[in-house]
Amino acid sequence: MANSESLEKNIVSIKNLSFSRGSRKIFDDISLDIERGKVTAIMGPSGTGKTTLLKLIGGQLSPDHGQIHVDGQNVHRLKSKDLFNLRKRMGMLFQSGALLTDMNVFDNVAFPLREHTNLPESMIRTLVLMKLHAVGLRGARNLMPSELSGGMARRVALARAIALDPLMIMYDEPFTGQDPISMGALVHLIKSLNVALGLTSIIVSHDVQETAAIADYIYVLSEGKIVGQGTPQQLAESDSKWVQQFMNGNADGPVPFQYPAPDYLDDLLASH
Amino acid sequence: MFEFLENLGKATRSSFAKLGRSTLFLGHTLTGIGDVIPRPNLLIKQIYSVGVLSFLIITISGLFVGMVLGLQGFYTLSDFGAEESLGVMVAASLVRELGPVVSALLFAGRAGSALTAEIGLMKATEQLSGMEMMAVDPVKRIISPRFLAGFISTPLLAALFSAVGVIGGHLVGVGMLGVDDGAFWAQMQANIDFQQDIINGVIKSIVFGFVVSWIALFEGYDAIPTAEGVSRATTRTVVNSAFSILGLDFILTALMFGDI
Amino acid sequence: MQHSKTQDTLVGLFVATGIAALFYMALQISNLGSYSSDDTYTVIANFQNSGGLKVKSPVSIAGVRIGRVSSISLDKETHESVVEMQIESKYNNLPDDSGASIYTAGLLGEQYISIDPGPGISGDFLKDKSKIDNVSSAIILEEMIGKFMLNKAEGK
């Protein structure tokens, strides 16, 4: 059980977490804390289970070992009703946006409000327009999700994620596949929302530059372990070769360019 | 030989696991129906996409099936000089068998496949997962209204199919082939029993609606969230629905009309 | 949630049409429409052979249906077929010396009971549980052919 001081300070606290899919070990005894009111980034190469980590925090998956506390509650010990109540205070931005395709932008943002509150329609309208204005898409309220660009869809999803004024937001690869302008818009949005709404943000990403620009603290994961952590500054100056390779995007280094394979020459000659 | 046994064992295990998952899924769906009742808008939207959009295909098919029955029945019956029985023949085939069965098959093809694809794609695009993270139970919010809509729509569609089919049979038999109008209806009314034929037909279509909706929604929910997974699930919906409808039809017919 | 009025209307129309089709089936296609709420009374007739007569076979006078067969059973002593029929109460003036015959509608049609009103010598009418004595059994095709062949053979 986390002690009360760290509870105050940390909104998410992960202790000795292990998780595997089939025979593949995704997390091997990792521990990390996420501080309230800060932007924390979890980085690592593709396929290190960063999205899985968010699903574990959100209680959609259960760990093999270890505990995850969110706002003082052990996520995997909660009854489903309490888990649902906890989730109302967590926003999650999926990579695809996960907008409901049979509703327009307005109804998508209004969805959590209509599901969880009994607010009158006029109040919902005001709230939705405020959230849409915050992401700069008040004018797009009548578009359907299929009419939005990828960046716009993510911004709508962000407006929806903040509709219930959550304590924290988890961003799953928010920058992937964005053009420089919408990337810039998203970077700016995440930072400014964090300050304006007093949120805690968790960003899962492998886009080093953008993430480092807004993160207060970074954890670097590889092969189920935490291989580096610290402020962006500290990581940039890290003497770990691995962290250096990742932060600078070198093709070869401790993470080899080649996927493990038999000897090249043997392989070519052994074709028949 | 060993490998064969191993594969057989694997297949058995996975089909039992699937049966278990689908049963749990059904239970979850049914408990969600209570939450649908206070929100009729959700239901109306689904009845629209499941029922209203199937209306045309059902009525047109019903009309043609009835007309074919009228034509075939007339030529067979006229060999025995029993054209007056055309009405009974058309109505009995429609009300007892063709109405419930063909409309359920059409429903599986038209609405069932669409349901599977819709749910599967929602899963693939993380909409279900996203809903879960918004603390909304996707089964109760998405699946239950669709299930209820399918369950309500099928008996109505089957009734439409039969009614339109009888009119089609009348059109051909009385309108084109000259069977006596009075005899057509009188023989029909004398021989089609409300309890035995109509009610049993409606019960059949209710059972089919239940099973097809269940299969379609479960396959979508259980689909592998990729393009290929969803397309396979859609195929499975149509195939499994057809098997279930025809198999259950035999069982129900034996229970209702037979002495087994 | 935007819910369009057209959608509501179409759904309403669909449900109404479906229910109308159910009523149509009940009233126009099935015998529910011809069930009269009137009372019926039961008349019994013993036939030597009731042939292909079935429960619910029609009972008619001069081609007009007045009731239906309600049960067919075997009298264990006389080995006769006991046929009970329900006749609508409005036909309460059938003379008690009426006869009942089993006929076939067409060559291959279903069998039915035809009541042949008697002269009414006693002036009484058939009542509930009355028995019709003047009966003629179903004509069995095989028996007829058999008799015909026998006569031919004897006549030679």
Shape of chain C: elongated
Largest inter-chain interface? B-C, 36 and 31 residues
CA-atom Rg of chain B in angstroms: 21 Å
3D shape of chain B: elongated
What structural keywords apply?
heterotrimer; A: 272 residues; alpha/beta; 4-stranded antiparallel sheet; 10 strands; C: 156 residues; 8-stranded mixed sheet; 2 helices
How would you summarize what this structure contains?
Chain A has 272 residues and is an alpha/beta fold.
What would your notes on this structure say?
The complex is a heterotrimer of chains A (272), B (260) and C (156). Helix content of chain A is 38%, strand content 24%. Chain A has 272 residues and is α/β, with parallel strands linked by helices. In chain A, the strands form 2 sheets. Chain A has a 6-stranded mixed β-sheet with strand order 6-7-8-3-9-10, with helices on both faces. In chain A, helix 4 (105-116) crosses helix 5, helix 4 (105-116) packs parallel to helix 6 (150-161) and helix 7 runs parallel beside helix 8 (208-214). Chain A starts with a helix and ends with a helix. The relative contact order of chain A is 0.15. The model of chain A has no long low-confidence stretch (mean pLDDT 83). Chain B is mainly α and 260 residues long. In chain B, 88% of the residues lie in helices and 0% in strands. The radius of gyration of chain B is 21 Å and the shape is elongated. The mean pLDDT of chain B is 90. Helices cover 26% and strands 31% of the residues of chain C. The model of chain C has no long low-confidence stretch (mean pLDDT 81). Chain C has helices at residues 5-29, 141-155; strands at residues 40-47, 58-61, 64-74, 81-88, 99-104, 111-116, 130-132, 134-136. Chain C is of the alpha/beta class. Chain C folds into 2 domains: 1-35; 40-145, no CATH class. Classes of the chains: A alpha/beta (272), B mainly alpha (260), C alpha/beta (156). At the B-C interface, helix 2, helix 5, helix 6 and helix 7 of B face helix 1 of C.
